Amino acid sequence: MSLSFGGAEGAPRRLSILGATGSIGCSTLDLVARDPEAYDVEVLTAFRSVDALAEQARNVEAKLAVVGDESLYKDLKDSLWGSGTEVAAGTSALVEAATRPSEWVMAGIVGAAGLAPTLAAVRRGAVVALANKECLVCAGELMLDEVRDSEATLLPVDSEHNAIFQVFDFERLERVERIVLTASGGPFLNTDVAELSQVTPEQAVAHPNWDMGAKISVDSATMMNKGLEMIEAHHLFPVAPHQIEVLMHPQSVIHSMVGYVDGSVLAQLGEPDMRTPIAYTLAWPDRIATPSARLDLARIGTLTFQSPDEVRFPALRLAREAMEAGGAAPIILNGANEVAVAAFLERRIGFTDIIATVEATLSAMPRIAINGLDDVLVVDRESRRIAGAMISPPSGRA
Ligand code: NAD
Ligand code: MG
Fold first, then answer.
1. Is the Cβ atom of 232 under 6 angstroms away from ligand 1?
2. Who is most buried in 31, 63, 156, 249, counting CB within 10 A?
3. CA separation (Å) from 179 to 128, 164, 275?
4. Does the pLDDT value for residue 300 go beyond 80?
């Protein structure tokens, strides 16, 4: 069987890459560069990295390049002068870019900022490769309703969810007993808990296995990343919260597993290289070759596992509670976390203050009912305001 994804048979596949200059965006473009005839790049976007974006746009002859920061329009325009690439800037230009008629869209923006562009791609029925987990955490139900209405195809890029997607039996849901999200534990799996308050941004972003953007690297160090991934999994796969387990696995070789009623457990394995799950979404339902290192289990020798420690990683408990509560709770969790991680990276708060801020914001905020995107945006804004005020009180404490 061959799927044309709306493009003419044999014609290059039209791609849009939202968040092109980030870690996921660069890995996607690395795959595109290995088979340039197979793809036409419609859109590339970035937030502020004008030079990197302009270079990428020239390399792939993108039709449109968009920078999220409106004040950088002229810089981008100058950088792409004479290239044939159209230029735009600003938040609404990002959303508009996502409506361009490409067949495949990489949602690779980090944070809730990716929600509106990702929704725009979903609404026009595109194949959306979803890396941006924060938008599912904030607006999962809404987004999946839109996917159903528009008949868009949502393909998970996050390595755990991509692994589950590869071994999940969607035809026999009642035979699925549980899904097991594996977690490396990040750089502080074995650090003395008493020392965690002193760790620096440099130590926190130095992930032992994966090379990722700063925000997700800090989330991996606090394990909020796995918390967000539990909520992401709850939206992507039809299982109840109690069927979602987390298992520490420091080698990041088993990317996640699905357990069935007969006791079978199916897993997807591979070297920790995001080009493998990205390639899976780019070629789905086919597969394409990647340059990722081949898994050599004899060389690795030992795979280890342990139960998660919610005292060391309170983010896991907060995220599980937010997943079970649903509604406003995951939006508050995510908004407060984004603000706190940014403050930590700017050295305005310590490492353990990140999750303390999230917990305090969750306690401080009322849980309004979520009936649409406007409610999501109100709660997101308010959680950021409250978390921000806790970090830099308007008056009083210095
Ligand atoms: P990154 O920080 O390396 O890149 C983020 C991209 O988004 C950049 O292109 C940046 O310019 C753009 N961006 C940032 N803020 C923006 C804003 N306000 N408006 C518009 N664009 C903005 O991040 P990343 O590591 O590539 O992660 C991207 C997403 O993929 C995140 O949601 C992350 O959780 C998820 N993810 C990443 C990895 C990984 O290996 N890096 C793995 C799994 C999931
Ligand atoms: Mg992941």
1. no
2. 156
3. 23, 8, 23
4. yes
Query: From the alpha carbon of 225, which atom of ligand 1 is closest?
Result: 34
* β-pairing verdict for 176-183 and 254-260: antiparallel
Q: Which ligand is closest to the CA of 246, given by its number?
A: 2
- Quick check: 248 and 308 in contact, CB under 8 A? yes
- What is the phi/psi pair of residue 255, to 5°? -85, -15
Residue 9 has pLDDT above 60, yes or no: yes
Q: Which residues surround ligand 2, an ion (CB under 5 A)?
A: 158-160
The pLDDT score that the predictor gives to residue 152 is: 98
More confident residue, 350 or 1: 350
The letter for the amino acid at 309 is: D
Q: Which helix (H) or strand (E) holds 183?
A: strand 176-183
Geometric angle at alpha carbon 303, from 300 and 306, rounded to 5°: 155
Rounded Cα gap, residues 338 and 216, in angstroms = 10
Q: Is 117 in the pocket of ligand 1 (CB under 6 A)?
A: no
Atom of ligand 1 nearest to the CA of 24: 26
Task: Give the residue, out of 23, 209, 231, 278, with the most ligand 1 atoms within 8 A of its beta carbon, to mutate for a pocket test.
Answer: 23
Q: In terms of pLDDT, which residue wins out, 397 or 67?
A: 67
Tokens coding 304: 């280890």
- For residue 49 the two structure tokens come to 């990295």
* DSSP conformational letter for 90: S
Given a cut of 70, whether residue 5 has pLDDT beyond it is no
pLDDT, one tens digit per residue, over 201-246 is 999 999 999 899 999 999 999 999 999 999 999 999 999 999 999 9
Residue type at position 243:
Q
Domains in the chain, CATH or no CATH each: 13-156 (3.40.50.720), 162-325 (no CATH)
Q: How far is CA 67 from the centre of its chain?
A: 20
Q: Which of 19, 32, 14 is nearest to 103 (CA)?
A: 14
pLDDT at residue number 8? 62
Mean residue pLDDT of the chain comes to 95
Residue type, 158: D
Each residue's pLDDT tens digit, 366-381:
999 999 999 999 999 9
Contact criterion met (CB below 8 Å) for 314 and 351: no
Q: Is it true that the peptide bond before 36 is cis, omega within 30 degrees of 0?
A: no
Q: Is 302 exposed, middle or buried (0-12, 13-18, 19+ CB in 10 A)?
A: exposed
For residue 49, the CA-to-ligand 1 centroid distance in Å is 12
